[in-house]
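Ticket reopened. Same input as before:
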Amino acid sequence: MMVLITYDVRTVTSTGQRRLRQVSKICQNYGQRVQNSVFECVVDAAQFTSLKLQLMDIIDQDEDSLRFYQLGNQYKNKVEHIGAKASLDVEGPLIF
Amino acid sequence: MMVLITYDVRTVTSTGQRRLRQVSKICQNYGQRVQNSVFECVVDAAQFTSLKLQLMDIIDQDEDSLRFYQLGNQYKNKVEHIGAKASLDVEGPLIF
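Engineering reply: fixed in the latest deploy. New output:
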């Protein structure tokens, strides 16, 4: 199934910036970045559980926000993209 | 149906910052902000079309990215949230 992951990580501190890098790195292990803080991951139930646990272990639940959207298997016709493709340079100029 | 809207707007210029504010404002007319650049909108087909056209009219398609995910009517059990709730202060400290 396809799971969409969106996140806000509060990066005003260096620990926040570290959390952001870690969240991004874990998501990259499971799927594809489509926007700066949006990933699409094709996973089975066990992988989804594992991914969630890893992310929950990293984020600061008082500061950061994680959302998961289960788009099922027939996801291709549910997604529409307009404009520029995902920036791969997340350390580059501010985009949000 | 519920439509999830995610966006990256390139804000290195003042015109980009203006586009970001406009995108956010239009999305607010149709739904609820759940993360800084993520909105959930409950719309019918006509509203969805109108919303898309308004957003396409604002963004710079070479610089910005818009994605729409149609989550259907049975969306409540497809969405999971962990951590802090949406920041309402989008002009506040950098969160992405």
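The CA atoms of residues 3 and 85 of chain A lie 19 Å apart. The first helix of chain A runs from residue 14 to 30. Please confirm and we'll close it.
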